[in-house]
Specification:
Layout lengths: L8 H13 L4 H8 L3 H8 L7 H11 L9 H14 L11 H10 L1 H30 L1 H4 L1 H21 L5 H29 L13 H11 L5 H12 L9 H12 L2 E4 L10 E4 L4 E4 L5 H16 L1 H7 L8 H20 L2 H10 L4 H8 L3 H8 L3 E2 L2 E2 L4 E6 L4 E6 L16 H4 L8 E6 L5 E10 L11 E9 L21 E2 L41
Parallel strand pairs: 1-3, 8-11
Antiparallel strand pairs: 2-3, 4-5, 6-7, 6-10, 8-9, 9-10
Pfam families: HTH_3, Peptidase_M78, ScfRs
Organism: Sneathiella litorea
InterPro entries: Cro/C1-type_HTH, HisK_dim/P_dom, IrrE_HExxH, Lambda_DNA-bd_dom_sf, ScfR_C, TransReg_Diox_bact_type
Length: about 550
């Protein structure tokens, strides 16, 4: 059976654009490809999938790298544009998926500029909502009128007494002046507090920039979560440790002491109880909590080695347009240091081959590399080296409140940038069975299917006063790649018995019969033919 690429609204648009840039007609290109002009027309209008052999032939004729047809970068842009254009702000316009995809493919710079504009709008909207909430709930503002009037009245009374009574004793005069001075200081503090809320730089008056976390997510997505310079630096650095086996904590602690004069010790009861690790640059010491499992100890040691050895490389890599502010660059350096730690502990070639041989069995990979579930999942998403790439995964991490703290996708899954994700995702269901791996075949409203697994992870507790943090981590791929995963063994992937209908987020999902809807769907023409109605409507029906 001839291999095919999954349908994407981008492929046809990009093919048409490249053909026009080379000044070729459909007839001319079809003739060189050995296909009919009508079939090429169907390809350009996304009515047929492009086979892999045809894709390779196209790349030779058009003189482009086959990766030019990869939907990942533009797919990410399309997802964010769709999120924006489905906002109630644009309810008077009905933009189709095809129109949005065509704009992203034909005018990527304009699309990016639109996305930045919408990001700025959402930031200002959020600031306004937060300020409104604070004004209504903050005790300072709720009682500001009373406090200000009380202080002003007291100051006026004290100064009037001093002014109108010339025969006051020096003691009484000094006492009233002290009252006026004290109330003046209180008045000054009150005014400064009030001005500080609306003048802290989060509202108007500053050029907009994405939050550091969002900027780093965009940066990682733009690089497909693969940094070749770091991979090669980690490989060369590892070779200096003599051997390709697993690195022990003793080897790394000895290296830190010999090369950097840094002593590694475990915290005593009185050392610290608020942080898992504390690096004292001045005293050249690294203190690790005894609560950390062995896999975390090794990762933190590798992290410090990377920060000390490759600071210049990380600084060079973060000089990128996706990281416009100093805060974003610092977050980016931290992310690259974490990337290095994974590349150092789990060498690319060894890890990639093991992942393929073990059919991406995360538990077996944990055992082989003495790593945590989250560490293995992260490393799996970085196997994007041309010529030896792994399964294109998406990765999401969420806390129990639904806040997404990590997101990345090469699978084609659209992860919402604004608001929470669909409650039907297996990511959220994992919290119902802590520690148990949950699989799911999901289907988007457009028919695209994904295979995902999810499991909760618990961060170490530093003591009773520091509660444990729990997250759910989900990793998955397009259904076409699921056969490569051991978790899909025994499943009929072409006609599965159980498929979970999901969306991206309620605001973008058009499913009208979802009992878990938390927000109205995109505006649709109302159907008035039916005489029946639900007398207990859900949120989406209000």
């Amino acid at each position: 059976m001839e291999a095919q690429m999954a349908k994407s609204p981008l492929l046809g648009n990009r093919l048409r654009r490249l053909r026009k840039e080379r000044k070729l007609t459909q007839v001319e290109l079809a003739d060189r490809l050995g296909i009919s002009a009508s079939y090429l027309n169907l390809l350009e209008h996304n009515r047929r999938s492009i086979t892999v052999p045809l894709l390779l032939h196209l790349s030779k004729i058009l003189k482009v790298d086959p990766h030019v047809f990869s939907p990942q970068e533009e797919g990410h842009l399309i997802g964010e544009m769709t999120d924006a254009l489905k906002d109630p702000l644009f309810s008077d316009h009905d933009f189709t998926d095809e129109e949005i995809a065509e704009m992203a493919a034909d005018a990527p710079a304009l699309s990016s500029a639109f996305k930045k504009t919408y990001d700025a709008f959402k930031t200002a909207q959020t600031d306004l909502q937060l300020l409104s909430e604070r004004l209504s709930q903050d005790f300072l503002f709720a009682g500001s009128s009373f406090r200000l009037r009380t202080l002003v009245t007291s100051i006026m009374s004290s100064t009037e007494i001093v002014h109108d009574n010339e025969d006051l004793s020096s003691k009484d005069r000094k006492e009233f002046l002290q009252i006026a001075l004290k109330d003046s200081e209180a008045l000054n503090d009150t005014v400064n507090e009030m001005l500080g809320v609306v003048g802290d730089g989060s509202l108007t008056g500053k050029t907009w920039a994405p939050s550091p976390n969002e900027a780093v997510s965009d940066y990682i997505q733009a690089h497909n979560n693969y940094f070749d310079k770091i991979e090669r630096a980690a490989s060369e650095f590892r070779s200096s440790f003599n051997g390709l086996g697993l690195l022990s904590t003793h080897v790394m602690t000895d290296y830190l002491l010999e090369k950097h004069g840094i002593e590694v010790e475990f915290a005593s009861r009185d050392s610290h109880n608020t942080e898992a690790t504390l690096y004292d640059e001045k005293n050249h010491s690294l203190v690790l909590s005894k609560s950390l499992p062995q896999s975390s100890v090794k990762f933190h040691l590798a992290l410090l080695l990377g920060q000390l050895t490759f600071a210049d490389l990380f600084q060079e890599l973060v000089e990128a347009p996706e990281l416009p502010t100093e805060a974003a660059k610092q977050k980016g350096i931290a992310a690259l240091a974490n990337y290095f730690a994974g590349a150092f502990l789990f060498p690319y070639e060894m890890f990639f081959q093991s992942a393929e041989d073990l059919h991406y069995d995360i538990e077996l990979l944990q055992q082989q590399f003495d790593a945590s579930f989250e560490q293995i999942c992260h490393r799996l998403t970085t196997l994007m080296r041309p010529g030896s790439s792994g399964v294109p995964f998406h990765l999401i991490r969420s806390d129990i409140a639904g806040n997404i703290s990590k997101r990345f996708s090469t699978s084609g899954l659209r992860i919402p940038r604004y608001g929470n994700s669909c409650p039907r995702w297996v990511l959220h269901a994992a919290f119902l069975t802590p520690g148990t791996l949950c699989p799911q075949i999901s289907e988007m409203p457009d028919g695209q299917r994904f295979f995902s697994i999810a499991r909760t992870v618990t961060k170490p507790s530093l003591g009773y006063a520091q509660p444990k943090r729990q997250y759910a981590i989900s990793i998955g791929c397009d259904i076409a790649e699921a056969h490569r995963l051991i978790y899909a063994d025994g499943l009929n992937l072409t006609a599965p018995k159980t498929v979970m209908p999901v969306g991206i987020t309620c605001r973008l999902c058009e499913r009208s019969n979802c009992a878990q809807r938390a927000a109205p769907p995109p505006q649709q023409p109302r159907q008035t033919t039916s005489q029946k109605r639900n007398i207990s409507p859900g949120i989406g029906d209000l």
